Amino acid sequence: MLTAVTGINWGDEGKGRIVDLLSEHADYVVRYQGGNNAGHTVVTDKGKFVLNLLPSGILHPEVVCVLGNGMVIDPEHLRHEIEMMRYMNVQISPQNLKISEKATVCMPFHVRQDVLEEERLSKTGEAFGSTKRGIAYAYGDKYMKKTLRMGDLLYLDSEVIKKRIAMIVESKNLILEKVYGQKTLSVEEVMDWCRGQAEFLKPYIIDTGALLEKAAAEGKDILFEAQLGALRDIDYGIYPYTSSSSTIAAYATIGAGIPKRQPDRVVGVMKAYSTCVGEGPFVAEKAAGEEWNEKLRKAGNEFGAATGRPRRVGPFDAVASRYGLQCQNAGDIALTKLDVLSSFEKIPIITGYRVNGKFITDFPTNILLDDAMPEIEMLDGWNCDISSCQNWNDLPENAKKYIERIEELIGHSIYLVSTGAKRDAYLLKE
């Protein structure tokens, strides 16, 4: 069984939580795109874990975790993350972590350029809300053939690789010096950095495509873990305020390295309300007022797992969610963080947008989104703790009505509802 776990909205939907649950029955868990701009949070009896590069299945020692070829990987960040997980008594070795030789290396100069450009744009109010971790620049250089792949770190003594690094450094120095007025790089310092990363990561780097193809042929259970959500997809999201990779489930097997395959099951994850990190149009934050939004932000501890930045928040957006569901083609939907709404007497839901005086229910991905205003309906809250609810009938009636109204608006049933932060705080909707 090949299962893709994807985000329906702007990211931060709780995908790590769902992957962790499904990993109990998985043989492999694969990250197939993005980089360390992800922030997947999982709470277990061992504590709270925030994963940037490592798949959420790493908390299950019997599961083999894979960083696929569609990713960009910052080796320094990965090493730090591995060491931190080991400090927290998580078992990580070349036996349960594999890195694709085809994955793109996020180099220090990618991070440097990301910071410089975001600072430049911020002065004019045109910043994209980057995490400043070099992701876009690593992907850009991937397509311009001006960076390394993880497998290249195994052959640093090769004259071919040495020549390529020299070409890359020359190209980057032109940008750093002529565009940003910065100190240039030397080939020697880049080579030294590469050797340091290779020394630590060499045992983990393999042809993961061959590994996963063999596993798929043998009928193994493989989970594909996406970073961000449909509305941040490079092709289908709110461009240009998107990620630099494909967050869509259809890309899962391609980014994993097994393009002849396709997912058998897609699990779409969405929150019981709306959140957004970064810049760009976000209709939901206009719906209920800043006082309501701030209460929601505090109740849900809505601060970016990767960046610590306060998330933009608002009510559940049925317009955006229908569009995200369409993009992901999810057969199953997991609804997360329902418990966060437990203290609200009234809960708004966005049922449509008004653009230039016209009521619409289709999500616009062009500049019309900037001027869209939310149309809402109000539902009664349930005003009680639901974290101990283990089945559908345990939920208060108003909580059930809230979920059922979401189902009506998105035109799809929900199969799983999380009712608290702990690993076992969820229920299956019958």
Supply Rg.
Answer: 22 Å
Helical fraction:
25-40%
**Strand ordering within the main sheet:** 9-7-5-2-10-1-11-15-19-20
> What is the CATH third-level topology name of one domain?
Adenylosuccinate Synthetase, Chain A, domain 3
Q: What's the architecture of one domain, going by CATH?
A: Alpha-Beta Complex
Helical segment count:
12
Category by helix and strand content: alpha/beta
Instruction: State which percent range the strand residues make up.
Output: 15-25%
Low-confidence stretches: none
In short:
This protein is an alpha/beta fold and 430 residues long. Helices cover 31% and strands 21% of the residues. The chain has 12 helices and 20 strands.
Task: Please give a structural write-up.
There is one protein chain. The protein is an alpha/beta fold and 430 residues long. Among the domains are: 104-201, Adenylosuccinate Synthetase, subunit A, domain 2; 270-428, Adenylosuccinate Synthetase, subunit A, domain 3 (Adenylosuccinate Synthetase, Chain A, domain 3, Alpha-Beta Complex). It is globular. Helices cover 31% and strands 21% of the residues. It is built from twelve helices and 20 strands. Helix 3 packs across helix 4 (135-143). The protein has helices spanning 15-22, 75-87, 108-122, 135-143, 159-178, 187-201, 208-217, 252-256, 290-299, 318-328, 368-371, 397-410, and strands at 2-7, 28-31, 40-44, 47-51, 64-67, 72-73, 97-100, 104-105, 205-206, 222-229, 265-271, 274-276, 312-314, 316-317, 332-336, 346-355, 358-360, 373-380, 416-418, 426-428. The strands form five sheets. The chain has a ten-stranded mixed β-sheet with strand order 9-7-5-2-10-1-11-15-19-20, with helices on both faces. Strands 14, 16, 17 and 18 form a four-stranded mixed β-sheet that branches. The longest helix has 20 residues, at 159-178. Strand 19 (416-418) and strand 20 (426-428) form a beta hairpin.
